[in-house]
């Protein structure tokens, strides 16, 4: 069983990837997929870099993990995300059969930085997060640096908003 320190370590890696993404012209999101205590995939947001609305960090990490494992279902893995996953990323996670997601920054932090997917979630669920996900699938872990990707994003004057 993983300790809180291990979860924080992987979340800090996702946060570092998100900050790196901002510095390279991408969005402020990073994701890491872990299997048996080992990182098997990591990715950051490349929506504006690739002109691809599905190039979210979590989706990219899931694609990489599937290739590493040779299977579309990666149910023995954990997804760590720098931010609470959007509805698309949650759906991809469920399709991949990943049983557990840990995230650092809450949805409100993404909205503060201009990433407002609230309307999508409300159309799909009638609220910002489906009630069923509050039963252990999706867990926020408090990490001191959770807002760093968004602060870095907001400080960048040449950012490409979307």
Notes on the structure:
This protein is α/β, with parallel strands linked by helices and 162 residues long. The chain contains seven helices and five strands. A five-stranded mixed β-sheet has the order 2-1-3-4-5. Helix 4 (87-95) links the parallel strand 3 and strand 4 (100-105). The N and C termini lie far apart (39 Å).
Taking Cα atoms only, what radius of gyration do you get, to the nearest Å? 14 Å
Largest sheet report: 5 strands, mixed
Query: What class do helices, strands and sheet pairing give?
Result: alpha/beta
Total beta-strand segments: 5
**Helical amount:** 40-55%
In N-to-C order, the SSE pattern is: HEEHHEHEHHEH
Question: Quick check: average pLDDT?
Answer: 92
Side by side, the strands of the main sheet go 2-1-3-4-5
Brief sketch in words of this structure:
The protein is an alpha/beta fold and 162 residues long. It has helices at 4-23, 47-50, 57-69, 87-95, 107-112, 118-125, 148-155; strands spanning 30-35, 38-44, 78-83, 100-105, 138-140. The chain is globular, with a radius of gyration of 14 Å.
């Amino acid at each position: 069983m993983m300790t809180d320190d291990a979860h924080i370590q992987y979340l800090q890696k996702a946060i570092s990837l998100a900050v790196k993404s901002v510095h390279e012209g991408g969005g402020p999101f990073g994701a890491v997929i872990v299997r048996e205590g080992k990182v098997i995939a990591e990715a950051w947001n490349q929506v504006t870099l690739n002109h691809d609305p599905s190039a979210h960090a979590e989706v990219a990490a899931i694609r990489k993990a599937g290739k590493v494992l040779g299977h579309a279902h990666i149910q023995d893995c954990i997804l760590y995300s720098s931010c609470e996953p959007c509805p698309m990323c949650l759906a991809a996670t469920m399709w991949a059969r990943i049983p557990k997601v840990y995230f650092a920054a809450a949805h409100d932090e993404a909205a503060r930085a201009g990433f407002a997917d609230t309307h999508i979630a409300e159309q799909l669920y009638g609220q910002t997060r489906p009630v069923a996900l509050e039963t252990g699938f999706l867990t926020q872990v408090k990490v001191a640096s959770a807002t760093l990707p968004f602060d870095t994003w907001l400080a960048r004057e040449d950012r490409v908003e979307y």
